[in-house]
Design a protein that fits this description.
The structure is a single chain. By secondary structure, the protein is an alpha+beta fold. Helix content is 58%, strand content 13%. It contains 4 helices and 3 strands. A 3-stranded antiparallel beta sheet has the order 1-3-2. β2 and β3 form a beta hairpin. The longest helix has 27 residues. It is elongated, with a radius of gyration of 19 Å.
Length: 83
């Protein structure tokens, strides 16, 4: 059975207001399930919310940036690696 965290609990963990967390839930920035009149955030998303885990799109963005950097500065990086 999955466990959940409430908006006030998450707000306390993040050190922000409940309104801030609620707005992020409404905007889809934080994944939550509506249970009755309240929202519940699955605890499995907590690491992602706290920035400890990367989402698939974040990993792709980093990969693109690394490829671009290697393409543009590959020779310089090789020379720096020899020092």
């Amino acid at each position: 059975m999955e466990s959940y965290i409430t908006i006030p609990e998450l707000a306390k963990i993040l050190g922000v207001s409940r309104i801030t967390v609620f707005k992020k839930v409404k905007n889809g920035e934080i994944k939550a399930s509506k249970i009755g009149r309240n929202y519940a955030i699955p605890k499995r998303y907590l690491e992602e919310i706290l920035g400890k885990a990367l989402t698939g799109s974040q990993k792709q963005e980093i990969e693109r940036a690394v490829k671009k950097t290697v393409k543009e500065y590959g020779q310089t990086l090789k020379l720096l690696g020899k020092e």
